[in-house]
Amino acid sequence: MDYKDFGLVNTKNMFANALTGHYAIPAFNFYNMETLSAIISAARDTHSPVILAVSESALKYMGDNLLMGMIWGLNLHDSDNVALHLDHGSSFESCVHAIKLGFSSVMIDGSKLPFDANVELTRTVADFAHKYDVTVEAELGTLSGIEDENTQSATSSYTNPDDVVNFVNATNADSLAIAIGTSHGAYKRKSPDEELRFDILDAVAKQLPEFPLVLHGASSIPEHFIETINKFGGAMKNARGISPQQLRHAVEMNICKINVDSDSRLAFTAGVREQLATHPENFNPRDYLGIGKQNIYDNCVDEIKNIMGSDNKI
Question: Can 174 be counted among the known catalytic residues?
Answer without folding.
Answer: no
